[in-house]
Amino acid sequence: MVLYKRKQVNFIPPPPIPSDLNIQVYYIPQTKEWFPNYEDYLSRMDYYKRKKFVCEITGNSCLTFFEALQSEAKEIEGVERNFPEALREHILRFLQFNRITRLDQLVDKVYSVFKNDFFPGETIFIKGTLTDYNSLKPAKELNNDIKTNDENQPLIKQRGTIREKVQQRLGDAITTKYLVVRLNDMQQSIVTPDKIARDRNHFTKWLIKTFIKLTVARSHKVNAPWVVKDKYAKKYRIPQKYPEDLIQFADSTPTGENMIKSKSKRSQSQGQNSRQRGRSEQHAKEQSKKDALLLQQQQQQQQQILLKKKFPAHYLPESLELDDELFASERSTPALNGSTNNNVINSSSLQPTKKHITNDLEIKFDIQNPKPMPDALVLPVNSKTWNEHLIEEIIKGKGNSSKEEDEEDEEDEEEEEDKDVIVKQIKKLSSRKIHAVQEALQSWIFINVYHSALNLDTMTFDDFVYAMGWNGDQFNELGRCELLDEIWCSILSAFVSNQLPTGKELSAAREKEIIFGLQIQLPPKTSYINPIKKEAQDGNDDDERGSESEHEEKTLKSEDDEDEDEDEEEEEDDEDDKKINTRSKSKAKNGEEAEEEDEEEEDKKEEDGEEEEENDEEEESEDDVDHNAYNVMNYRNSSWDDKLRKRNFKDGNWQCILLGILSLVEYVPSYKSLIEEIYHVLAPRDLPATPTTVLDQFYDHMDINLKFQVLKVLVDLLISGTVVRNYIDSCLDASTVLRRNRLDNIRDYKINLENAQRVNATMVEMLNEHQKTDEDKEKEKEKEKEKEKEKEESNGTPTTTTYRRPRLNYQAFEMTENEASFAKENSTFKDLWHERKEYLLKLNQLKSEKREIEKKLTELDCQRVKLLGKDRLFNRYWWFENNGLPTLHGGSGDDDENDDESNDKKDKEDEGTHDDNDDDKEEVLEETYLMGKLWVQGPSDDDLRIYFKTNYEEANKFNEEYSQYEFLDYQLKLNSKIDEDKDHDIKQQVDIKPDESNDTTNTSSKKTHIREMDFSKLPPPFLKTVSKLYDVNFTKNEIYKHEDLIIDHEGALTSYEKSQELSPVERKTIEEYSDPLVNGSNWRYYDKPEQITKLITWLNPWGKRESQLKKELAAVKDAIILSMEARRKALYLDKIPDEEIAIEKDITKINEKIYKIQNQNSNNNSNNDEGEEIEDDEDESPGPKRNLRRKFTPRKKQKLQTVGDVIEFGNIDDLKSFKQKLQNQLKEKKEERDLSRVLEWVNSKALELFDKSLYDGGDKFKSKSKKSKHY
Q1: What is the pLDDT of residues 1215-1234, one digit of tens each?
Q2: Secondary structure class of 4 (helix, strand, coil)
Q3: Mind listing the pLDDT tens digit for each residue in 449-500?
Q4: Angle between helices 704-719 and 722-771 (to 10 degrees)
Q5: What whole-number distance in Å separates Cα of residue 730 and Cα of residue 737?
Q6: For the whole model, what pTM was predicted?
Q7: Cα(590)–Cα(689) distance, integer angstroms
Q8: Angle at 436 between CA 433 and CA 440, to 5 degrees
Q9: Percent of the chain that is helix, strand, coil (3-state, to 5)
Q10: Where are the alpha helices (DSSP H) in 431-533?
């Protein structure tokens, strides 16, 4: 039987015979199919010539139908020619309803059972000596001679045929003898099985396997038996009646006959409906009331079914929806009124298979049930407020400078350039989102994965982001942030070792122009990512200060690079580098020394009168450097590497060291612009070149995105460094040891488990025998007799018997009442119970050890972060706590598969009653987290190129256009003086948790009716960008593409063809409307447990990518939810503290009071004329205000301190001012929560190792000479 994608081929039924028999038809002889239409014939032949067919017997795939059919015919011919005919019936009887699921095990079983068992009609070989065959003695004498032959004579085989098989019972043993006829002389002899054998080529495992595949079939369900096909069952008279316990597999077992595609069953259902309509009138009157109720229920059910059909949970591939056979069972299910649901397909009952899983983009979609919208990473509060402060300063400076420039009217071009720079700065600072998300994530992962090598304690991502946004106000008021300093100091310490060089080593390093103790490998100067320019090769590199040749001169080499330079080209470069000093050392001067040298050069110029052109160009290039970075990094003739080696980080020194490290790689093109920007920010030309200046500039003017980008550059350099490589090697060694321990643990667990099950089985048997009565024993004897009769009826063929071992309770540490009573009577049972208890305790111990080993292995897996998978639109999903990081959560996957749910519950109860320390640890783990977010990244560059037919730059146009429109909206709001942030904060403070209420209403409404789409609240920048780039237009409730309706008002596709006409980018903008992820620079995250469950249900299991992603997410779902719940609990995201709740309640009371007063004022003003209203506004206040002032007159000198006083005696101004005061208090409370967590962080790792932090020089080298001075 030929298979198509591992499934049986369905043949097309013959069409009706045409009236004109003289027409030409097209015939396929192999399948006996004929077609009146040539196009149908071609399409069918195209189907048969696909390389997706499989030969069922050999298992060979990637064949056409005709190749597979030819392969099967060849194998069938070999079986018919070689496999013994007399053996087939007995093997088929053994295979019928056999429950051995694996084919290889079944082949081994058949071979072992029938290897020494022979049947009448078989041709075999008789073993004997030459004298035996030449004597031509009768059968009895020949048999005796064969038994007593001489061992020295050679054995000779002769062909014979078995006539009869005789079995005799001698006591308990059964002896078998065969009556054999020799083919050469037709003499008969009685032989034993050890004197005969089959031909080796006629009874092999390969032939048995081929015979089984040819004659036997099996259902796709679990634990299904093997069943002989109808063709061979009828031929060899094999009984086909299913046992009672196997009846459920009868419908799904293949019969081996050719399957013909069944037509639609509408005619059958129509016939049934007509018979139902033709019921008698009397019966209709009796059932009238019941039918009315049933019709109402059916109408409601049909409405729900229609909704599910229009918007199912998961759309099926288009090929499945057209397949009638797949839904035949669903269509034939009876409805409430007895009819069949011919038009309703219940796709939820279907399970996806490898055959039907297809490309995700080929499946239909809708936006009625969209995926949960991920959030963007926004700026922390401290960075956001500081950016607003910087924008105000830039605008003020712009106004002052513009006045001076207007008065002068000389530098118009420079003014335009300055305006462009100012606009770019404001645009960069006005965004609420963090743009360097990838740099932040990569840096945080590196720090936490390699925290042991960096001598740094772990930190949460929220604290990491908040610490990186530490601004100038916080530095001046609160001082330095220990978390921020420890991060930078730990990273910088990994670049240069703390070992102090001797005088000889230092002089040798200076001669070679290398940095002593450098632990990184610098990028090559000449490579495919950093080619040498032609100007640099020609030697014309003195025109510009930032040319590549000068960057080559400025770089320093590490000791590893010096040892690895073996090629001739690299040696030539080294010789050239040795002749030229680096820029960092040539610029290692104090400010006064530089001025003195300039004066000396001017004196020489006056005396000589002439200078060479090269010196002039060098002076001009030095004047072009508009920063003091090279002077600051080597302040007071102390090089930055010397400070780093001595771990001198205080008072702005580590910022100077940062500039020095960046100077090593400023020649790299990808780093060049960033490093130049850092130079200008930290060491501007118009400020003194001192470490205090760099320190102030770091906190005042260095943006958080810039910090993340610089930190990522350092991380890139350290990845291939010595510290990381040594740590990875140690992790690999430790993981190999742990894997060996895990294998030993598994082996010990299996041994103890087998022993515990063996003891448990004996205990159960003893208990059952003790509890049995005389009637039970008689019933068992009758059952045994029945089994013996069945064996005799089966003609001696062996049958398979299943033995079920009694289930082992892993928590049976105490005796039950029956066991205790029986243990008092039987001492052996008591000893067995204690033995089983010891095994169970050992099993639990091994389980806990295995959990610890698995946790350590996940922590040591630090080489790369594992990707969970991709969705239909090629978005990538990352769970960064999956490997490499310390395991601070416990998942459900830690429990052993053999344990029951009840046992797990008992285990938890026992742990809760006995182990208090374990409870404390679990509470700590529940409240501890590192990330607490599931990250979503846009498509990779390869996915953009292959599937989206675009590149990163083209896809990034969406981000550029969106940010441009967003900045224009920001400018309009800024000019109109609308404080959007305050309004947003007030709305959040007054309305407690508005999002949750909306979500609940939406979810409840989705269950009852279809939601009407509303695109009116989408952000205008998104609508403009999508319309401009992709011509996708969002109306109020519909979506159009080139004026064609794509999505209707209910969020459904107008047609499947329209969805296939959409490009992947256009589909991405529609499905991810308002915030699509267009490339790898876009990152979003989920941080709510309900979002994870909704995401898993949204993923379509019929898609290739989403089916894999769904499995991976389901595997780590528990760990993700635990981490998210711990984060939300620690940050008070779901439960607001009591103090803040009290403040919010007071704000709502004040708002209600203000609303009442305003309504009273509006009602009073509406009764007066316009002229009277103007006079009232100028002279005196309205009636209610007048009354309030009269009540408040005796308490004018008293201050309003409480909310009750303000509500009772205050006017509108007092209410508004007190409300603003409460809002400021609430804002301060929220900021204090983030601030307190960051300030409470301590580098416990450094304190344990060095008794002080890295910023204080904890990693400083301690020489032995200092210790010897004390003696």
Answers
A1: 888 788 888 888 788 778 88
A2: strand
A3: 999 999 999 999 999 999 999 999 999 999 999 999 999 999 999 999 988 8
A4: 80
A5: 11
A6: 0.65
A7: 9
A8: 110
A9: 60, 10, 35
A10: 437-449, 461-468, 472-478, 482-493, 503-512
Residue 186 backbone class (left: φ over 0; alpha: ψ -120 to 50; beta: rest): left
- pLDDT, tens only, 897-940: 444 444 444 444 444 444 444 444 444 444 578 899 999 999 99
d(CA 487, CA 446): 11
Cα 1026 to Cα 1023: distance, rounded to the nearest angstrom = 5
Whether 1270 has a pLDDT exceeding 70, the answer reads: no
Place of tokens 């528990």: 1118
607-646 residue pLDDT tens: 444 444 444 444 444 456 788 999 998 888 888 999 999 9
- How many Å apart are CA 1122 and CA 893, to the nearest integer? 13
Rounded Cα distance between 455 and 451, Å, is 6
Flag whether pLDDT at 265 surpasses 70: no
Q: How far apart are CA 637 and CA 642, in angstroms?
A: 10
Q: Nearest CA to 1260 among 1269, 1271, 1250? A: 1250
Dist CA 994 CA 985 (whole Å): 13
- Looking up tokens 């001489």 gives 150
For 55, the enclosing helix (H) or strand (E) is strand 53-55
What does the alpha-carbon distance between residue 705 and residue 439 come to, in Å, rounded to a whole number? 9
Q: How far apart are CA 506 and CA 859, in angstroms?
A: 39
Higher pLDDT, 1185 or 771: 771
Residue found under tokens 């103007």? 1174
Residues 6 or more apart from 31 whose CB is under 8 A from it?
Answer: 11, 48
**Residue 344 region by backbone torsions, left for phi larger than 0, else alpha for psi between -120 and 50, else beta:** beta
Question: How many angstroms separate the CA atoms of 89 and 421, rounded?
Answer: 92
Nearest to 718 by CA among 426, 897, 436, 495: 495
HSE-up (13 A, CA, CB side) for residue 525: 26
In this predicted model, which residue has the larger pLDDT, 594 or 1103? 1103
The tokens of 1020 are what?
């205008």
Q: What is the pLDDT of residue 806?
A: 79
Contact indicator for 1078, 958 with CB cutoff of 8 Å? yes
Structure tokens at 538: 């020609």
Q: What is the mean pLDDT of residues 544-548?
A: 33
- Phi first, then psi, for residue 1202 (nearest 5°) are -110, 165
Tokens linked to 773: 């009565």
Residue 1176 has pLDDT above 50, yes or no: no
H-assigned helices in 521-590: 534-538, 548-554, 559-564, 568-579, 583-586
pLDDT digits (tens, 9 = 90+) for 180-191: 998 888 888 888
**Calpha distance 1175→1183 (Å, rounded):** 14
Query: Is the CB of residue 178 less than 8 Å from the CB of residue 119?
Result: no
Q: Please answer whether residues 293 and 335 qualify as being in contact, where contact means their C-beta atoms are separated by less than 8 angstroms.
A: no
Task: Assess contact for 893 and 1131: CB atoms under 8 A.
Answer: no
Instruction: Give me 119's structure tokens.
Output: 């049947």
CA–CA separation, 461 and 450 (whole Å) = 15
Q: Are strands 2-4 and 53-55 parallel, antiparallel or unpaired?
A: antiparallel
597 Rama sector, left if φ>0, alpha if ψ -120 to 50, beta otherwise: alpha
Contact 429, 395 (CB under 8 A): no
DSSP 354: T
**Angle at alpha carbon of residue 594, lines to 590 and 596, rounded to 5°:** 120
Contact 297, 233 (CB under 8 A): no
Specify the 3-state DSSP secondary structure of 254.
coil
- 3-state SS assignment for residue 816: coil
Contacts of 22 (CB under 8 A, 6+ apart): none
Exposed, middle or buried: residue 574 (CB in 10 Å: 0-12, 13-18, 19+)? middle
Neighbours of 681 (CB within 10 A): 19
